Amino acid sequence: MLARGASVRGGGLLRRAGAPGRGLRTSPAARGGMPSWVIDRYGRNEVLRFARNMALPAIRFPNEVVIKVHAASLNPIDLSMRSGYGATALNMKRDPLKLNSEENEFPLTLGRDVSGVVMECGLSVSYFKPGDEVWAAIPPWKQGTLSEFVVASGNEVSFKPKCLSHTEAASLPYVGLTAWSAVNKVGGLNQKNCGGKRVLILGASGGVGTFAVQLVKAWGAHVTAVCSSDASTLMKELGADDVIDYKSGSLEEQLKTLPLFDFILDNVGGSTEKWALDLLKKWSGATYVTLVTPFLINMDRLGVADGMLQTGVTVGSKTLKHLCKGVHYRWAFFMPSGPCLDEIAELVNSGKIQPVIDQVFSFSEVPKAFLKLEGGHARGKTVISVINKK
């Protein structure tokens, strides 16, 4: 098997200097159409539309692959994007040079997770080949996975864990990479330094939380999970050492009775940020990482330049304030990464991480799946079976 490298996964165009422009290739099927769930405007669930004949995606860059979607899943970001959250920043990413005179994000296909089969590869993709079973999390500025086919960059794709069905695999990439970003890339925890550390996870029963509990437990941490009482059994099954019911009295007071923590992952935000950092060990490198940030809200409300400025001022002032108190304050975001999915796949195949699925819907039931997610209190992920093959 080829070693994974930049030229394979993210890479440049692999051709001789002076050769014709063969880096772009269009699928022969691209002249046809495919079924997709799209939105033509932002709003609530009524904006979802089933399109029977959307244009099939074409390879436009030599490092891209076309994936036939076997299963997808929903994440809170899909609800947010359906309503227009983050549109300013995402449109800037879609068209950074403002080459298009008008907004062109519609029709927009939602869905970030995919598990499926490679159908075609760009000319610089040598790590994958047609027929490979893969999984990926597609960045939110690209067309999504609630469709028969999707295009992904080779450096966003990884081989699907062999022990999982497509339905199971589709539940993990987006939440897995979000948790990995927060815990490893931003929080600095890894297999070598996590052993024995005390980790607190706020909002532990959702998609990111259930993954994070398993990840830090696989790395040897002592895990305290915060959730409602009906999820306590699940948390214990995933390896949590202590489970705290946030509904049984003051959560802050309950957590103050426990020893201090080395790391906190906050999936909840809101008022928790006001007191959660007091639960960290001071002057020991302890870190609080939150996934609830005002970055996209600021850009939607203030515009790109002023939004970025306000965001920078906010995070800078909070970081400095808490650093003076002896703890680290950080924001984390989803980051697409095939190589990180490789590491996650190893943990899955070794039995250290398992998918947590709340409910599976058929492709025709996508609006019902959105309503289910919108209702909250999910235990794990809401998955869409795009085709009847596992």
TrEMBL record:
GO terms for biological process: nervous system development; ubiquinone biosynthetic process. Pfam families: ADH_N, ADH_zinc_N_2. GO terms for cellular component: mitochondrial matrix; mitochondrial outer membrane. Transmembrane segments: none annotated. The keyword Nucleotide-binding applies. Pathway: Cofactor biosynthesis; ubiquinone biosynthesis. Residues 43-384 form the Enoyl reductase (ER) domain. It catalyses: a 3-demethylubiquinone + NADH + 2 H(+) = a 3-demethylubiquinol + NAD(+); a 3-demethylubiquinone + NADPH + 2 H(+) = a 3-demethylubiquinol + NADP(+); 3-demethylubiquinone-10 + NADPH + 2 H(+) = 3-demethylubiquinol-10 + NADP(+); 3-demethylubiquinone-10 + NADH + 2 H(+) = 3-demethylubiquinol-10 + NAD(+). Residues 1-29 are annotated as: Disordered. Residues 14-25 have a biased composition (Low complexity). Its main location: mitochondrion. Keywords: Acetylation, Membrane, Mitochondrion, Mitochondrion outer membrane, NADP, Neurogenesis, Nucleotide-binding, Oxidoreductase, Transit peptide, Ubiquinone biosynthesis. CDD domains: RTN4I1. The keyword NADP applies. One of its GO terms (molecular function) is oxidoreductase activity. InterPro entries: ADH-like_N (IPR013154), ER (IPR020843), GroES-like_sf (IPR011032), NAD(P)-bd_dom_sf (IPR036291), Quin_OxRdtase/zeta-crystal_CS (IPR002364), RTN4IP1 (IPR037397), YIM1/Zinc_Alcohol_DH_Fams (IPR050700). It comes from the Eukaryota. It is found in: Mitochondrion matrix; Mitochondrion outer membrane. PANTHER family: ALCOHOL DEHYDROGENASE RELATED (PTHR11695), RETICULON-4-INTERACTING PROTEIN 1, MITOCHONDRIAL (PTHR11695:SF294). Belongs to the zinc-containing alcohol dehydrogenase family. Quinone oxidoreductase subfamily. This is NAD(P)H oxidoreductase RTN4IP1, mitochondrial. It comes from Casuarius casuarius (Southern cassowary).
